[in-house]
């Protein structure tokens, strides 16, 4: 296969499953395991209404416990598959496979996962894709190991050759590379025709260095949903206003402005005085639905209404994600979609 025969599908294209990892006492969730387990139960319940979930578990005891919790919550266990594999933490968006369609099969891109630039140990997570591939989880697929630090949450594709990312993150990961060099590398590996960069926008409490999936997401090749801030007294106001102006200036591959959908701004969520990164842009698209992070905020219903406008014909399902942002991520960050046909 030639490089040009590959295609990076958009998240809204048909999926075979969602990949995630169950939190346990050996992950960073240990101090608040009970709270986050409730979120995972709600998340798996929501996913399995629409498609299968593949749940990574650290060992047989974790699997037995997760199975019991999900069964007692009346989750459709026919759609839950457990896979025993080592992992450091549960941020599968960043340690899971980036899947390209290639002919009648798939190429799994296995970039280096460095714990967001060496902030956390990630030696097990960095081997996750390799191990899952060796276990035969994926069908008709090859694995391409790429010695380049890149997380799935740092990139967005429209499925038609346009990539959206942030200079804050990629510049931080690769300080010796120019924007043109990084764009060329990303376009080559990810089978993209162009790369759009955002200069502005970052959330306090986000240790990913401004992953795009907390800020702006494609809803269609001509539409972008983004996290707005309309509170001039908020510390995020200036940066997110600047990002909104950047998005308004972007053009589609056909030279048209994007249809833009502004998500409302939730009230600050503090934990022992620390601001947590609550973003409605961290939603997950599944077959027939959009799973939206809900924070118990008065803006939750308004965010759901915006997503309904951006994704007509899909059900909007709110998943309580307040426990997730304690560890600086949300719903999209803990999941990775697997395109239709990829799962054996």
From TrEMBL:
<protein>
    <submittedName>
        <fullName>Agmatine deiminase family protein</fullName>
    </submittedName>
</protein>
<dbReference type="Pfam" id="PF04371">
    <property type="entry name" value="PAD_porph"/>
</dbReference>
<keyword id="KW-0378">Hydrolase</keyword>
<dbReference type="InterPro" id="IPR007466">
    <property type="entry name" value="Peptidyl-Arg-deiminase_porph"/>
</dbReference>
